[in-house]
Every structure is written in structure tokens, then in C-alpha cells.
Amino acid sequence: MSAENERIKVELEGVPETLLWNLYNRAEEARRPGSRLLDDPRAVELVDRIDYPFERFGAASMAQWHALRIRCLDDEVRRFLAERPGGTVVALGEGLETQFWRVDDGRVRWLSVDLPETVEVRRTLLPDDPPRRRSLACSALDLRWMDEVGDGVASRDVMVTAQGLLMYLPEAEAKGLIAACAERFPGGRFLFDALPRAMVARNQAGALGSSDGRYRAPRWEWGMDVTEYRKVAAASPRITEVRSLRFPRGRGLYALAPLSHRIPGLRSLRMSIIAVRFGGDPGSAE
């Protein structure tokens, strides 16, 4: 295992490389003195340890927006753990997300599911600590990961999260994944973020990149405007509740974030954070 002060070279491309972009923005907000929106010392440590040209992402102009998104997601996971102490969180496509350390209640069980090359990086930089924190090298669409949630875990005690993942899947596959989780984890939850259609269209047209043009996000496949979130319920008859979460208040223009879903013009540019609840018999996972 590498020494703490040794820089570790990370080489990724395509969708897996986005984990470094997300990490960079979290760390930049966490470094901010004074009124920062996110405390994430592990993100800062990781950026300092990784040998990677983070400058290719350009100025961290999106750092505050990333922090607001993360705060919204973290708060919903904390609400789940307050209701289901000792619950299980399955984090699909987690990358180098450090959410476990931000929300840990001392009892949560955490399963990180990601592609093999990403899990290799994660295990190098954030080694597993079983039984409470484990990683599994597996595509989110390979539903065999469901068998790894744990014997005897009640399905109502399971929250599946998909941060920064579903936009890379065609709509049918994204909603199919949600439906499969609803079937396997009755009484459980699903939490994900969705980009607005206009932003996805700009990405597909090649109009989105870093501020200096060196980095361009991989192709996004699925977008959903904030006014469409209720349509997620059609993915499965087991879905009993779909909520669009309210963003926390930010600095400057981002002070409008909590009201962004109500402001014409901003609504079509706003990412949605969607919390889904499953109904059915909340027994043990099969």
C-alpha cells in the first residue's frame, strides 16, 4: 500500500474520468475559507495525493453548484438513515465520491458499485473497510450486484443512489434500472440526479466543455426537466412516491437555488434531484 504522502498516478478516460472532475470541484469548494458550502477534507486529501493534470478541467467555476448538489443529496441520505438507523446504502457509479464519511452515522452499511477500472482506483485511494464499507466491480446494469446487498437485510432498509450516472444511460435503461430496484427492494428508496433536456442537447451538440476548452464531458443520453419528474412513477407500479428535492441556499446568484424550480428560464437549466420511494411488501431481500 502506498505511503500517505506518495502521489498516485490515475489514468482514466470516458465516463470513468468524470469522477476526477467531480472530485476536483468538491475539493475546490471544500478548500474555500469562510463561508464554504461543503466540508469534505477527504476530497481535498485525494486531489493532493492524485497525480493527474487537474488544470485540464479549467477554473472551478462549477464548484459551488457541485456543492449545492452534493448538499442536497447528502441531506436526503441523512434523512433516510435517521428513519432507518443501520440502513444500507448502495452507491451506483460512485467513483471517488466521499459521501460515506460525510453522512456516516456509525452504523450505516455501504456498498459502492462501479466499473472495474474505477473500483481499482477507489480501492487504492479509499481502501474498503468491511463489513460496513465495501466495493464491488460491476456495472450498475448488471443486476447481480443486488445479491451483494447482504443476507437478511430488510429491503425497506435499502437506499440505492445514482449520482452522476443516469444521464449516461438511454432513458429506457435508466428507468429500467429504477424499476428493477423497485421490484427487488420493496419498501426501499432510490435517489438520483437528472440533467435538464436543454443541457443534454448542448452536450450532444458539442457545446459544453471546461472554461478553457481542454475537457469535454462524455456524451449524455438522457435528460429530464424539473417539470417532468413525476413521470418517473410510470417506470414501475411499485413506485409510490416521487419527490423533487429543494436545493439549499448558496452564495451570490446561487442564493436563488432554493427557488430555482419556480423561476421561468432557470427551471429549464436546473438539475433535478429526485427521491423515489418504493411500495410493496417490505420483507427481506431475496
From TrEMBL:
Any one GO MF annotation of this record: methyltransferase activity
Top-level taxon of origin: Bacteria
Any Gene Ontology biological process: methylation
Assigned keywords, A-Z: Methyltransferase, Transferase
Alphabetized InterPro entries for the sequence: Ppm1/Ppm2/Tcmp, SAM-dependent_MTases_sf
EC number: 2.1.1.-
SUPFAM superfamilies with a match to the protein in the record: S-adenosyl-L-methionine-dependent methyltransferases
Protein name as catalogued: Class I SAM-dependent methyltransferase
